[in-house]
Amino acid sequence: MSIQKHSRRIEGLDKNVWVEFTQLAADYCVVNLGQGFPDFSPPNFVKEAYIRAINGGLNQYTRAFGHPPLVKILAKFFGKLLKQDIDPLNEVLVTTGAYQALFCFFQALIDDGDEVIIIEPYFDCYEPMVRMAAGQPVFISLHPKPVSGRLMTSADWVLDPVELANKFNKCTKAIVINTPNNPLGKVLSREELQVIAELCIKHNVLCISDEVYEWLVYDDNEHVRIASMPGMWERTVTVGSAGKSFSATGWKIGWAIGHKDIIKHMQTVHQNSIYHCTTGAQQAVAEGFEREFEHLGAPESYFFGLRKELQLKRDQLAACLVSVGLKPVIPEGGYFLIADISEVDVDLPESTETKQPYDYRFVKWLAINKGLATIPVSAFYSSNSKKRLENFIRFCFVKEDTTLSKAEEILQEWSRRRKTQ
Ligand code: IK2
């Protein structure tokens, strides 16, 4: 046997949609509506706080489980939102982005053979992270309800409560939820969360709630935190991201908030993996949250302002997609919008990759031939479901208006050409 043989843990997990499509965008695209990051700057108040932190000497290690000012303000901020006393030292863990919070959770709580329920479409890393922990992912899909005479919205994609109940059994250890969802933009309603909460309590199951887009809910939608529901605090880990909250995805500061009996196990993984996150960035995020705490829900709040701006961008992109014959699913929240491409007739060239789902081939064609980067939605589905969902692509709209206008020009020009062919 070769000494380079990989461990069984990572068998079959080498493909990654971000690695593949970020490279494609870099190689071919003029306009990037692919990966989920803003192409505008974070607000000055956090940038200046970061610079002050570095110039002021915060360049060495700080507390391993979170810089004290940051865990303090996160406990205060989320304590208010969850109506829960949160112990900053034992119930908040600062992580390298939301990614690492998710990783710590699965490594710390999932054992060989434990089942983890994942709702499709899902942020792609949940599945490999569960598998690396030797857990067994169990998938359940949101089903799109047919609509007529209007555009579909993410609220039209629903869970079947009976199907969901049937996924729970004595091997179920956890369920992963993501609201607002990436890629669909679905915001789980209080009623939907109630069904999930009751099942978790009945079967003594943990809930990991990925809420990285928590501030971005549009129209009259409300972001409900499952950890605030009766009986859920002690079994929920809520995951957040400063990258998403303050438009600074490269800073990679995230957090996990939950009962101390769960967080202590996540601390064990954290101290034995990365140990510590960037001190200066944590200080800047702490100051950002201090400011946001003062302006919570007010027009001066950055979270409030970003939400308003993004709703306009969502509407602009949706209108453009309709005008070129794509069918957007209007998201209730988040950074992304998915659109049905089945009615656009594209003569995709034969390739050696014909076994790939249609959306993968379509996205590659769009990038290489039109210079527009998007993401295939089947990447957010398990292998058995991919074929059913290969007619959607994802657009990211957390972009400058000028970027969205350039995307619109590309799409309009392509549409004109199709009409004259
Ligand atoms: N959870 C969800 C739902 C996310 O969307 C992300 C970031 N995803 O962005 C890539 C994309 O979809 O284009 C994360 C977790 C990870 O967040 P962080 O960057 O804080 O690690």
Q: Notable features of this structure?
A:
seven-stranded mixed beta sheet; Aspartate Aminotransferase, domain 2; alpha/beta; 40% helix; binds 4'-deoxy-4'-acetylyamino-pyridoxal-5'-phosphate; 15 strands; Aspartate Aminotransferase, domain 1; 421 residues
Characterization of this structure:
The protein is of the alpha/beta class. The protein has two domains: 8-41 and 302-420, Aspartate Aminotransferase, domain 1 (Alpha-Beta Complex), CATH 3.90.1150.10; 44-294, Aspartate Aminotransferase, domain 2, CATH 3.40.640.10. The protein is 40% helix and 15% strand. It has 13 helices and 15 strands. It has helices spanning 17-28, 44-55, 68-82, 97-109, 126-132, 161-167, 190-203, 242-245, 260-271, 279-294, 302-323, 358-370, 401-420, and strands at 31-32, 92-96, 115-120, 136-141, 143-144, 157-158, 172-178, 206-210, 236-241, 253-258, 327-329, 336-340, 372-373, 375-376, 392-396. The strands form four sheets. Strands 2-10-9-8-7-3-4 form a seven-stranded mixed sheet, sandwiched between helices. Helix 11 runs parallel beside helix 13 (401-420). The protein is globular and about 65 Å long.
Q: How do the strands and helices of this protein lay out in sequence?
A:
Blueprint: H1 17-28, E1 31-32, H2 44-55, H3 68-82, E2 92-96, H4 97-109, E3 115-120, H5 126-132, E4 136-141, E5 143-144, E6 157-158, H6 161-167, E7 172-178, H7 190-203, E8 206-210, E9 236-241, H8 242-245, E10 253-258, H9 260-271, H10 279-294, H11 302-323, E11 327-329, E12 336-340, H12 358-370, E13 372-373, E14 375-376, E15 392-396, H13 401-420
4'-deoxy-4'-acetylyamino-pyridoxal-5'-phosphate binds near residues 36 and 254.
